Structures are given as C-alpha cells and as structure tokens.
Amino acid sequence: MNDYYADLGVERDSSAEDIKRAYRKKARKLHPDVNPGPEAEAEFKRVSQAYDVLSDPNKRASYDRGQDPYGGATSGFGQGFTFTDIMDAFFGGNAAGGRGPRSRTQRGQDALIQLDIDLPRAVFGGEETLVVDTAVQCSTCSGSGARPGSGHRTCSVCSGRGEVQQVQRSFLGQVMTSRPCSACQGYGEVIENPCFDCSGEGRVRTRRDLTIKVPGGVDSGTRIRMTGEGEVGPAGGEPGDLYVEIAVKHHETFRRRGDDLHCSIEVPMAAAALGATLTVHTLDGPSEVDLKPGAQPQDTVTLPGHGVTHLRGTGRGDLVVHLDIKVPTKLTELQRQLLTDFAESRGESRPAGQMAPAHGGIFGKFREAFSGR
C-alpha cells in the first residue's frame, strides 16, 4: 500500500487544510499540462490519489487502520476521485452546480435612528412618537413585484435552475463552471410585468409614525430594540429590526451622575448661619429641605428617591442639593453696623486667618468635585 502521507509530504497528524495546501502545491508543479512527461504524469496520479484518500475522513480513517481505503476496489487515480474534489482543493468550494435558484424573498436590513428626549422622560419613562423613513411592503403587488393580474415565469435561459454552465480551459484541462444566470439574476424566474409602484422589488419607501415606550432610567447611548420595525426585505421578505438610540438633552438645572441627580441652590448668608427651611423644585415637584444652622459653602443635602429610576431593578436614585452660600456685596449703613457689632462680639473684627489642611477645606472640595466623588 502506498504511503500517502509521504506522497504529499505531510505528517500523519496534519490537518485537512495542510493536506489541501500540500496537494495544491504539488498538483500545480506536476500536472501534465504544466510539466509534460511520463514521470511527472505518474507522480501527478500518485499525489492525486493520496489527496483523494487523505481528504476524505472515512477513507483516511480506514487507511490509518491499515485497511484498504477503497474497500477492496482496485486503487489508482480516479477511484472515487471526482473533479469536484480537485476544484475544492484549488478554490475552496464546489466548482459546478449544487446552488440552484436563489430566493427573491430576503430578510430586510436593520435600521438605527436617534431619539432626542428631555431629562424628565429619561427619569420617569413614557411614550414617544418616532417618524421613521423605511421600506415597507408594496400594497399594490403585495410584495410579489409583479403587476396585478400578471405573475412570474420560468427563465428560458437557465430553465429555472438560476445558473448557467460554461466550459473553460485551464491547466487541468476542460473545466465546467456554473455562474448565476444573467437573464434572471439567479432567481430561476423572471417577472413578466413589473409592478409600477415598486419596479418589481416588492417594497417601497414611505414615512410612518411609530410609538415607542421609553423605560425610565435610560441614558444617552442606550439602545432600544423594536423587533420587526426595520426595513421590509425584497419581495415582501421578513422585516429587520429597528434600533432606537437615546440622546438625553442638556437640562438647565439638573446634571446626572449615574442614577443620582445633582443641583445647586443659593442660600443667603444669614440663613446658612441661622438655619432655615428651603423649598427645592425637584422633577417630582416642590420639596422642602431643612437646613441646619452653620451650613458651609459646598455642603450638600440629599433627598432620597428623587433621582433617576433604576433601569434594571426597582427604586430610584437620590437628588443631591449643593449649597451655594451667598455673601452680600452691598450693605446699608444699618446692616454694616450690625455686622460690625456681630464681628466684634465674636472677636472677628481683625481675623488672623488660619491655613486650612490640604486634605480638607476648600481644596478638598475642589478635589472631590473634579474626581467626581
């Protein structure tokens, strides 16, 4: 029995791709059309038979067990070795036939559009109306592509096969290949009278309104999938999906960090020192905040559950209110005297000024602000 691995110059554990590559290299060198002569012809038959065995998993398994890979048949070039096997080795696929007519009906493409929403809609969710410009099934021909009262007929060029065969000459000799029929574009049938509205495609473009339910908690970049609302495929094929990408508009008062909302409120100096009850206008409506005496600039007050709805899970984030203590810049004589008396009573008429530690005070506030904490 021949040593097929040695004939191809490959190892016994070589992959199918390695075997195909080795055969392709030797066949190009030894083929009689390229290298005439009895020795080259005999060698070409030997490596071709080796490829016939080693490229077939069943034959290769039998050969590796020491059995006749042809089941007792006389071995030699051509035993079980087809032209398709040769073309598969060279071109990586079936060279002739096997495809048949392709279907006109195909799935439509997915579509992507952007939806701009305001912050309250992102927080609470709700319905939005989209204006979508996509392909829909032609109502005149119901997706068939043919004018009402007419239909499709079998292509006379390919007889419904969707492909035509042609003979070409190569270094392997006469090669018969198959190509999609140009008369019917590979469909195997032609439309006798195309629909006027869709020109035979079975779909037309139109603008339509869609209502989408936006869940609470979405943010810029969130995509919502609407199954079957994309482009209808040719010949009334299954529609693709529509993906809606959310873009949340800038809000003048609130800024978002995760599922928390942040805002600032101006507090008069006296109210910060004495304490007060302030009204904060949240997205849920007015809410009162109790300010303790001695509030400092950049202090915060948290309103639990007044933030963004959790997109996954239940509940909502918080609203963090940043205090902006306002020091008066214009004082009446009476106000100036009152403040002077107050400063003297506290021994602050000539403050020495004390350096604050780097990890706290205003520098710490700046660091926290820039680090996002």
Describe this structure in words.
The chain is of the alpha+beta class and 373 residues long. Among the domains are: 4-91, Helix Hairpins (Orthogonal Bundle); 255-371, HSP40/DNAj peptide-binding domain. The chain contains 9 helices and 15 strands. A 4-stranded mixed sheet has the order 10-11-15-14. The longest helix is centred in the first third of the chain and has 17 residues, at 38-54.
What profile does the largest beta sheet have? 4 strands, mixed
CATH topology-level fold name of the domain at 255-371: HSP40/DNAj peptide-binding domain
Low-confidence stretches: 73-85, 87-98
**The CATH H-level homologous superfamily of the domain at 255-371:** Urease metallochaperone UreE, N-terminal domain
What is the CATH architecture descriptor of the domain at 255-371? Sandwich
Looking at how many chains there are and whether they match, the oligomeric state comes to: single chain
Give the helix level as a range of percent.
10-25%
Distance between the termini: 78 Å
Structural class: alpha+beta
Number of strands: 15
**Range of strand content:** 25-35%
Shape from CA axes? elongated
